[in-house]
Design brief:
By secondary structure, the protein is α/β, with parallel strands linked by helices. It has helices at about 10-25, 40-55, 55-60, 75-90, 125-130, 165-170, 185-190, 215-220, 260-270, 280-285, 315-325, 340-345, 350-370, 485-495, 510-535; strands spanning about 65-70, 105-110, 175-180, 205, 210-215, 230-235, 275, 295, 335-340, 375-385, 385, 390, 420-425, 450-455, 460, 465-470, 480.
Length: about 525
């Protein structure tokens, strides 16, 4: 800048910095989508529905009575690959010999996962998207993108995102949540809670005006007491430090409330057959045909990783119990099943945890398939986001997914793991890396894999995640979609919420298809008539 040479050096420097800042501000890119407005995503979903109405499948297949959404938290495409190879390894077969249960389903596609303010989503805002159909801000749960984390403010009604489970319950369907995480964790909480910070699980916040933002556990009672089945971990946020329930572990609530007792009181007042259970013994002794509402909290925190052999119900067992309860409703049901600890294994670069948890979710899928009628149940398997995990190198097919690539080494003449991470706690700082081939503990579940970049907690990644679908209306997922579409497709399929009056719900389901057929027929007839007169 020639004009700056006439100014004193210090002034010229400051002036140049200011000009640069203003230039950068002016160059900020703007979004062509009103991402914070839920109507944006509904309109995009409606376009897909209009195309679906023109298909043969829409006119000939009855909409599903039930929907089960299996959510592998952090289950990226690479995670599916790694779990597939691990499955073969456990069967003493070679990588590629077997598939996961959902990999031969007739419909598969990809899902975009960005949220309203980040290229890479967190689990809270992702759950808001695939459960309510609205894009939320980073680290919020059950709120639209018009508000951001993490200050306590009073929410407007339009800022509260209502989930598909909410609408299903209102329509008279049974609903359920089954997870291996705390039931107040990001994904399950989005079913019933509206919180401005995902960590407000057992204690909220109060702003300087005295307004209190209620925590997720308390909102399970105020907003989610009509959910028939809630099973997972996280009991400690339901009672205070002066109490010890089932686990010889004191609670973490800062108020004096015992939400377990309050939940019982709510169900008793509504004259519902209900149960609160905490142990595997209680789980096994419960007659699922005798209860309509169950709150099962089987650990103070998350459920343990499956490989640790904890005395807790498995994800498949909880899924079976939920289906036995929910399927008694003649109107149908909506069930969310989350393999939540896949994500936790990846965050700490412990691939064995992540991949084993993926196979545990596969068992839940297989159990569900054995219990439901596939002609009246839509099943989906997907993920909320991806991870920086990859299956790399040119390893031979009989190589363990936890081992090194024996066919190649790095330029430092050291081996590398075929299950690897871009970033994580295994990244090295200012020292050469070790050779994992010389580390016999690389096959231990707690082994932390090497990564390129050192961070204490590995990040998510932004690539699309898979979705697999089976059953009536599975054709809705034949092409790539946004994660918000999953929520809209769920409600559309079940005829709840904003889609209660669709033609496939109560009217002439064939009208749309027939009108298109008739139009094509008339065009062909008109063409023949014109041809006759012209020739």
């Amino acid at each position: 800048m020639l004009w700056s040479t006439a100014l004193p050096p210090t002034v010229a420097f400051v002036f140049t910095i200011l000009v640069t800042l203003f230039q950068n501000k002016a160059e900020c890119r703007k979004s062509s989508l009103d991402v914070t407005n839920p109507e944006t995503w509904k309109k995009l979903a409606d376009k897909k529905f209009e195309k679906f109405k023109m298909t043969h499948a829409y006119s000939t297949v009855k909409h599903p009575k039930n929907v089960i959404l299996f959510l592998g938290d952090g289950m990226s495409l690479s995670t599916v690959t790694g779990a597939r190879y691990l499955k073969a390894e456990k069967m003493n077969l070679q990588g590629g010999d077997v598939e996961l249960a959902w990999e031969d389903w007739p419909v598969a596609s990809l899902v975009r996962t960005f949220n309203s303010d980040r290229l890479t989503t967190d689990s809270g805002s992702a759950a808001t998207a695939f459960l309510s159909g609205a894009k939320g801000s980073f680290e919020t749960v059950g709120v639209t993108g018009n508000v951001s984390c993490c200050q306590c403010t009073e929410l407007k009604e339009v800022e509260r995102a209502k989930s598909s489970l909410h609408y299903a319950s209102k329509a008279g369907l049974s609903t359920g949540i089954v997870t291996t995480t705390r039931v107040t964790h990001a994904t399950p909480a989005a079913s019933y809670a509206n919180i401005l910070y995902r960590d407000w699980e057992g204690s909220g916040a109060t702003n300087d005006k005295g307004y209190k933002c209620v925590d997720a556990a308390a909102q399970l009672l105020t907003n989610g007491s009509d959910i028939n089945v809630v099973m997972g971990g996280g009991a400690s946020v339901f009672y205070g430090p002066n109490e010890s329930i089932a686990f010889r572990s004191k609670g973490r609530r800062k108020d004096s409330r015992n939400l377990l007792q309050e939940w019982r009181q709510i169900q008793t007042q509504k004259q519902r057959k209900h149960a609160v259970i905490h142990t595997t013994k209680e789980f096994n002794q419960t007659d699922w045909s005798s209860v309509d509402f169950v709150l099962g909290l089987f650990a103070p925190n998350h459920l343990d990783y499956y490989v640790n052999n904890a005395d807790q119900p498995t994800l498949a067992d909880m899924t079976e119990a939920a289906i036995k309860i929910l399927s008694r409703n003649p109107k149908g049901f909506l069930l969310l099943v989350e393999g939540g600890r896949i994500d936790h294994g990846h965050h700490t670069s412990q691939a064995q945890y992540a991949l084993t948890e993926t196979l545990e979710m596969e068992k839940a899928v297989e159990r569900a398939l054995s219990l439901v009628d596939p002609s009246e149940t839509l099943l989906m398997v997907t993920a909320d986001h991806a991870h920086v995990y990859g299956v790399v190198g040119y390893a031979k097919r009989d190589t363990s997914i936890y081992d090194v690539d024996s066919t190649k080494k790095g330029n430092d003449n050291k081996s590398y793991l075929i299950s690897t991470y871009f970033n994580g706690p295994g990244g090295l700082l200012d020292k050469p890396r070790s050779d994992p081939a010389l580390e016999p503990n690389r096959f231990d579940p707690s082994y932390i894999a090497q990564s390129l970049v050192n961070v204490s907690f590995g990040t998510h990644s932004a690539e699309d995640v898979p979705i697999y679908a089976l059953g009536p209306f599975s054709e809705l997922f034949h092409s790539p979609c946004d994660n918000t579409f999953i929520a809209h497709a769920t409600m559309y399929s079940l005829c709840v919420g904003p889609y209660a009056d669709e033609t496939h719900c109560s009217g002439d389901r064939n009208a749309s298809y027939r009108s298109v057929f008739q139009m094509k027929y008339y065009l062909i007839l008109l063409s023949l008539i014109l041809y006759y007169f012209l020739h």
